């Protein structure tokens, strides 16, 4: 999970596919075991992808996903990846 973000470097189409998958899994993966760790890995992956391509859309998606988290404890944890 921690290196899947590299798929987004392959091209625009792959980046869109990756972002759509991250959004879907972040919002609908609450039934998975250790979903908070998975969510954190996705947020870190978005940060790494953003650092490589400097696409503001990636940052906006990450911020939206962090806001989507209802537990303030995890919101703070996810935000720590963007500081």
Helix content: 55-70%
Low-confidence runs: none
Overall pLDDT: 96
Annotation field: number of helices:
4
Q: Which percent range describes the beta-strand content?
A: under 5%
Order of helices and strands: HHHH
What is the CA–CA distance across the termini?
21 Å
The number of domains is 1
Globular, elongated, flat, extended or rod-shaped: what is the shape? globular
Overall structural class, as computed from helix and strand content, comes to: mainly alpha
User: How many extended strands?
Assistant: 0
Rg over alpha carbons: 12 Å
Main β-sheet: number of strands, strand sense, barrel status?
Answer: none
Describe, in short, the structure shown.
The protein has helices spanning 12-28, 35-53, 56-68, 72-80.
3D architecture notes:
The protein is an all-alpha fold and 83 residues long. It has helices at 12-28, 35-53, 56-68, 72-80. Helix 1 packs parallel to helix 3.
Key descriptive features of the protein:
83 residues, mainly alpha, globular
Topology:
Blueprint: H1 12-28, H2 35-53, H3 56-68, H4 72-80
Helix pairs in contact: 1-2, 1-3, 2-3, 2-4
